[in-house]
Structure formats: structure tokens, C-alpha cells
Amino acid sequence: MELLWRVSAALFAAIGLASTSLAQDDHAIQDRVVPCATCHGKQGHSQADEYFPSIAGKPAGYLQQQMFNFRDGRRRHTIMQRMFAYLSDDYLLAMAQYYASQPMAVAEPRTIGSEQTLAQGRAIVERGDPSRGVPACQGCHGESLTGAQPSIPGLVGLPVEYLQAQLGAWRSGVRKARDPDCMAEIATKLSDAELQAATAWIASRPTLASYRPSERAPDPLPLRCGGVQ
């Protein structure tokens, strides 16, 4: 409750400061993102804990789409939903563009699980399982898993706990995207062991300061995805 109060107070203060001008100047955008830093860190480099992901350097289209999803009820999180409930598309786009312009956060890789688990995870990430209609993670998110413009997020640098929570939310229907919801389709085809192995492998990958999303997504994508515009 204390965190919710602090974030809500920062949000309303920021809206009051920034709403006087929607011009894309440094002062206006810095005012807008004040509440975001409470959880996601300065410049979008999270230092809080495993459930507050770093958002710096992710494609602007992806970030804006996730704000829409929270605002419109496709993703559920009390703080995020309250933050975006009354913000316009243009307001959210400006915030997304700000974070997309920041350098990606550098994260130390974490080795979790046995060699067998990591080998299983690597196979899913690099090859998928065509016999079950499970595409390789790299097929959309890129060979280095840094994402692609305009709307595919990078996966490197995200904690294993966060990755597992998001895939679990897709499997249960708590998290949704615009139809066709490709990630929900993939998550429901993965067993618990496969989900844990894939996320463990991703978390074991380094995040370098030079990493950036690819300039464009693969064409065609392995699956039709409504959340990718």
C-alpha cells in the first residue's frame, strides 16, 4: 500500500506538471517519467527486484502497446492500471519513445539449473519444437534475443523470475495481447519443465552495452501475432 501511495502521488504530480505542455522537450518528458522510476529505476534501469523489469532500450512500439494493454485491461497490475487509466495515446507514446531512446541496461548473467536443464532451454530458444508448433524464441526475438523494431521486446537482461511469471500469466489467461495472441499460444504448449528451462537459458545470456533491438522484425514471423504492429 505504501508503494502504491508513493507511485500514485508521483504520478498525479507529474501529470500536473507535464499536462501544461505536450511539447517533446526534456523538462516535460522528465516530469512524465518521475513515477516510473519508483519501480523501473532511473532511465528505465531497474535496481528494485526481480519483478520490476528494466524497460530502457526496448522498442517504443512494444512499450506503448504494453501501456495500452495495462490501460485497457489486457494486462493486470493495480499500480500500472491506475497509472495509465486516464492517459492519452499521445501521452503514452511520448513516454515509450523516451525509454526506447535510453541505453539498454547491462545485466550480469545468472546460471540457474543443471547442465541438462540449460541444454533443454537452449534447444527451445534456438530451435523450438516444430512438431508441436512451437517456434524458436530467436525466430521472433532475434539471435541475441535483443528484440526488433517496432514491437518485439528483447528478452536478455530480464530476471528468470520475471520471465517465468509472464509466461505463467499467459498460460493462465491473466496476461493477454491483441488477437491472435501468439505468446499465449506458445506458453500453453510448453510444459512446466520446458518453461523453466527456456527462461533459465535466457537468464544465463549476457547483456552488453552495445546491444540494441534489430531495425526490423523477421519477415515473415513464425506466428501471426496481434501485439506486433
Largest pleated sheet? none
Radius of gyration from the alpha-carbon trace, in angstroms: 18 Å
**Number of helical regions:** 11
CATH superfamily of the largest domain: Cytochrome c-like domain
Order of helices and strands: HHHHHHHHHHH
> How many structural domains in the coordinates?
2
* CATH C-level label of the largest domain: Mainly Alpha
Q: What is the second-level CATH architecture of the largest domain? A: Orthogonal Bundle
Low-confidence stretches are 7-23
Describe the structure.
This protein has two domains: 2-100, Cytochrome c-like domain (Cytochrome Bc1 Complex, Chain D, domain 2); 115-203, Cytochrome Bc1 Complex, Chain D, domain 2 (Orthogonal Bundle). The protein is built from eleven helices and no strands. Helix content is 49%, strand content 0%. The chain is globular and about 50 Å long. The protein has helices spanning 2-18, 26-32, 34-40, 60-72, 78-84, 89-100, 115-126, 137-141, 160-172, 182-189, 192-203. The longest helix is centred in the first third of the chain and has 17 residues, at 2-18. The chain has 229 residues and is an all-alpha fold.
Give a brief outline of the structure.
The chain is an all-alpha fold and 229 residues long.
Please write out the topology.
Blueprint lengths: L1 H17 L7 H7 L1 H7 L19 H13 L5 H7 L4 H12 L14 H12 L10 H5 L18 H13 L9 H8 L2 H12 L26
Core attributes:
229 residues; globular; Cytochrome Bc1 Complex, Chain D, domain 2; 11 helices; 0% strand
